[in-house]
Amino acid sequence: MMIRLLAIGLTYCVVSNAGYSDYDWGAMSGRLSPNATEQQVMSVVGYRPNKVELQTCGADAPNGAWQCKIFTFGNVYSNLRVYFYEDGSDVWRVNSWQVYP
Predict the structure, then answer these.
(1) Which of these, 65, 99, 101, 68, lies nearest to 85 by C-alpha position?
(2) What are the angstrom distances between the C-alpha of 17 and each of 23, 41, 50, 96?
């Protein structure tokens, strides 16, 4: 099993590449719920995301664009991406999710 240590400022993340291509992200996505918090998502998945991003989502949405946080679990070839919105009380909640492939 290959493990690499990624240093980001003073935060350290341990990332393992083993087994992600065999992980059933579709089944895992079936356990997610809209409006779940970040902590609830990590509890369902069983570990922290490999990547966290802040982006602008919904550019074509009727109510306009909004800032979203994206958790990516897995790797570039096999992953679960969970999109969060901020609910107005500084809590990030699930808006939607996507499984690749």
Answers:
(1) 68
(2) 11, 20, 10, 25
At residue 99, what is the residue type? Answer: V
Q: Which of 76, 73, 70, 75 is nearest to 96 (CA)?
A: 70
Nearest to 48 by CA among 39, 56, 57: 39
Question: Are residues 80 and 28 in contact, defined by beta-carbon separation less than 8 angstroms?
Answer: yes
Domains of the chain: residue spans and CATH: 3-100 (3.30.1450)
**Considering the entire predicted model, what is its pTM?**
0.77
The answer to whether 56 and 66 are in contact (CB under 8 A) is: yes
Cα 2 → chain centroid: 22
pLDDT tens, residue order, the chain (101 aa): 333 433 333 333 444 445 555 689 999 999 999 999 999 999 999 999 999 999 999 888 898 899 999 999 999 999 999 999 999 999 999 999 999 98
